[in-house]
Amino acid sequence: MTHVVVVGAGQAGASVVAKLRAEGFAGAITLIGAEKVPPYQRPPLSKAYLLGDMAQERLYLRPAGFYADQDIALRLDTRVVAIDPAAQTITLTGDERLGYDHLVLATGAHPRTLPAAIGGMLDGVYAMRDLADADALAPELVAGRQVLIVGGGYIGLEAAAVAAKRGLRVTLVEMADRILQRVAAPQTSDYFRALHRAHGVTIREGVGLDRLLGDTRVTGARLTDGTELSIDFAIVGAGITPATVLADSAGLHVDNGITTDSHGRTSDPHIWAAGDCASCLFHGNRIRLESVGNAIDQAEAVALNIMGRDLPYLPKPWFWSDQYDCKLQIAGLNTGYTHVYLRKGDAPGVQSHWYYRGADLLAVDAMNDPRNYMIGKRLIEAGRSPDPALIIDPATDMKALLAA
Fold it and tell me: How far apart are CA 91 and CA 74, in angstroms?
């Protein structure tokens, strides 16, 4: 009997096993997760769950009985320590060995942490990646306390929004010239800077963290401009790195993620990868997409290809971020853009930014503007690029662009 083993019980891993069974795969399936809880949604951790608006059970991707009902062996609180590609086995903690016909690596990513030399190991310093992180952080969110957020990407900004909504005094530092510099145009940075400042967040751009202060627990921070802050705790939102240790040690090809072909295979024909850990092909370039949408779509493509469907996977990049009462939705990838065009909405705070490279539409950032997000997404996926003059003209019927 064919045995598919999936390492990593996050969104991608759970999607692989569910798709296999939904498509009629009759072989054995084992899903291995390092955490003690079944697969769950991660985006609400830094939003609704941390705010106390969502119970833990509502995070779960499937009901508790799903895996047993589908004859999926769910191994929780279990770590894989080695892969032997030649023998087609994995080794678990305790020296248990498990054979596979197909192995899927859905190992996700790890949050970047601060070096111990600058206080990264002090008590009161938190990352925000998994359920344990959220549970550890929650008791710190007491109104009136002072928190330092390190990093002005979406992770840091979402953490700042939650802390501000809970009544904390928030300072966010970003070493780059502006928040969101790596992922968004200045216009989008300006929008979110104004949004956070309107909620009382102090944003320091072009200033980094020199070191955290304290003996055993963090009590303060010194910034690169010499400023010293008194703080009660700190949250590090400095991005993530793909979890590739297993792949590296197994001799698989790794290049900013586990390298996969157009079907999701790694450099070993019996090993596949999906989700945040996987590097995939997109219009001839190699990219790694950190999004729920990609984790699901790529994982389901891998499941189908394990079953012999021979279907290339073409990523359809889309992302979102919730901050205060603003829902940001992003379609496409803005890499290499030359111009950004603003389309204003009919209410305060409603607008979209359209990224072009020359005459080609690449991406859209839509703030509280789901209709234009969907239009932009459909245009990008169809390879269509409207004249920017139509985008910025308030009289344009945007929906008509889909039929033009």
Answer: 16
For each of the chain's 404 residues, which pLDDT tens digit applies? 899 999 999 999 999 999 999 999 999 999 999 999 999 999 888 888 988 889 999 999 999 899 999 999 999 999 999 999 999 999 999 899 999 999 999 999 999 999 999 999 999 999 988 999 999 999 999 999 999 999 999 999 999 999 999 999 999 999 999 999 999 999 999 999 999 999 999 999 999 999 999 999 999 999 999 999 999 999 999 889 999 999 999 999 999 999 999 999 999 999 999 999 999 988 888 999 999 999 999 999 999 999 999 999 989 899 999 999 999 999 999 999 999 999 999 899 999 999 999 999 999 999 999 999 999 999 999 999 999 999 999 999 999 999 86
Instruction: Tell me the H-state helices in 175-291.
Output: 186-198, 245-249
Pairing of strands 169-174, 146-150: parallel
58 vs 60: CA distance, rounded Å:
5
- Which pair of structure tokens corresponds to residue 246? 């297993």
Is there a contact between 17 and 43 (Cβ–Cβ < 8 Å)? no
Classify the phi-psi angles of 136: left when phi > 0, otherwise alpha if psi is within -120 to 50, otherwise beta: alpha
Maximum CA extent, the chain: 67
* Nearest-angstrom CA–CA distance, 80 and 129: 20
Residue bearing tokens 């949050």 = 111
Compute φ and ψ for 161, nearest 5 degrees. -65, -45
| Six token digits for residue 230 | 């008194």
Closest CA to 57 of 76, 38, 31: 38
Q: Are 274 and 106 within 8 A, CB to CB?
A: yes
Cβ atoms of residues 152 and 176 within 8 Å: yes
Q: Is 95:84 a contact under the CB 8 Å cutoff?
A: no
Q: Is the pTM of this model over 0.85?
A: yes
Q: Look up residue 139 and give its two tokens.
A: 């008791």
